[in-house]
Amino acid sequence: MTTLQTSAILQSSMYSAAPSLLKKGKVMAILDIPKPRTRNIPLPNLQELELGRDFITSLNTTFAEKQAKTNSLVIAKLYTILEAVADRVEMHKNIGEQRKNWNSLLLTSINGITLAAATMSGIASTTAAVVGAPVVALKMSSTLLFLAATGMLLIMNKLQPSQLVEEQRNATRLFQQLLKQIETSINIGNPTDRDVNQAMQKVLALDKAYPLPLLGVMLEKFPSNVEAAVWWPHQHGSGQATSADYNGWNAKLEKEMRSIVEVLKKKDEEEYLRLGRKALKLNKTLAISGPFLTGLAAIGSALVGSSSYFGLLAAIFGVVGGGLASVVNTLEHGGQIGMVFEMYRSNAGFFKLMEESIESNLMDRQENGELFEMKVALQLGRSLSNLRDLASSTPSRKVQDINEFGSKLF
């Protein structure tokens, strides 16, 4: 207040002295000091500030709690799926061992029965020629054994235990692979509902591809058309990737991956499907020949000693048919032709899975490009430079003219 009064006195004295100064020819600048203006600015009190800060803190805490609850729920779901997958690994492993025993025991039993029946048939024909009268007991025993071997062969050829063993072996390996993938998702942290859905879909797809029961849902052992095995849910890219979503991808890498897809489709997958068709054709021939020979041997054994001419033919059919049936049965089930067919079918499925995975990533670039290139190289048993050389050589030649296959593992 004192300051304001002083400035007012100075201002009035300056105005009164101004005429005298002008008369003397002096110019004086008169400063006009503005009066201070005050405004009514409302200021928040401390209580309001505290309430606002508490509200923001509560919002952050609520969001963090919801996020933690969501993450814990997702992890709990993944652990539930993990337990189910671990149980399936043991189930397929145990049932695979059981069906492996089926194959060896049935093979040994049927061959033993067939050879015993052939021996009885030969003894009966010899006794009939020497004594002059057929031995009814040997004939009946031989015929019954041949009929039993025929029935067992029909069941064994229908089930194909060696192929069942290969199915369970593949299922065990693939479920173990899925087990590791789920564990990796949990260990890396921050899993989402998408990871849960993908894990569920993979489990259900594997259950459908490799069923455990034999009745009703067993895979067709002699399909009319050989196709690659499919044990994964259908992969399709979202198609939402833009030019800005590089994620380690570039035009050169995309061209390289498209070339790899062409090689896998035209060379590797087609080659294993061709081998699968050959194995299936051989297996069909052996599956029909075995029961036919044992049935023919049963007829020959029943006609042993009927007459001099027919008795000789019957003895030949009984002995030779039984021996040939044992050879065919050993070649089919001892050689595990059904397992070979399933192996070729699964190998073709492996390359089909790689093709779908590459095409899906080309659409949405979900995986990092450099990491995905390394993954493809490892799956094909190649180094990165070797993989690039294969891709660079493909556009200059037709795929059919390339002698080298995409995979170096199998």
At a glance:
74% of the residues lie in helices and 0% in strands. By secondary structure, the chain is mainly α. Helix 6 (251-302) runs antiparallel to helix 8 (337-364).
Q: Can you walk me through this structure?
A:
The protein has helices at residues 2-23, 46-131, 136-159, 161-188, 193-209, 251-302, 308-334, 337-364, 369-379, 384-393. It is mostly helical and 410 residues long. The chain is elongated, with a radius of gyration of 43 Å. Residues 1-33 have low confidence and may be disordered.
Coarse shape: elongated
- Main sheet record: none
Give helix % range.
over 70%
Terminal-residue CA separation: 100 Å
* Rg computed from alpha carbons, rounded to a whole number of angstroms: 43 Å
Strand segment count? 0
DSSP strand content: under 5%
Pairing-aware structural class of the strands and helices? mainly alpha
* Low-pLDDT windows of residues: 1-33
Mean of all residue-level pLDDT scores: 82
Alpha plus pi helix count = 10
* N to C succession of SSEs: HHHHHHHHHH
Protein name: F-box protein
Transmembrane segments: 102-124, 136-155, 285-304, 310-331
Pfam families: Chloroplast_duf
Keywords: Membrane, Transmembrane, Transmembrane helix
Notable traits:
F-box protein; mainly alpha; elongated; 10 helices; 410 residues; membrane; transmembrane helix; single chain
Topology:
Elements: H1 2-23, H2 46-131, H3 136-159, H4 161-188, H5 193-209, H6 251-302, H7 308-334, H8 337-364, H9 369-379, H10 384-393
Helix pairs in contact: 2-3, 2-4, 2-5, 2-6, 2-7, 3-6, 4-5, 4-8, 6-7, 6-8, 6-10
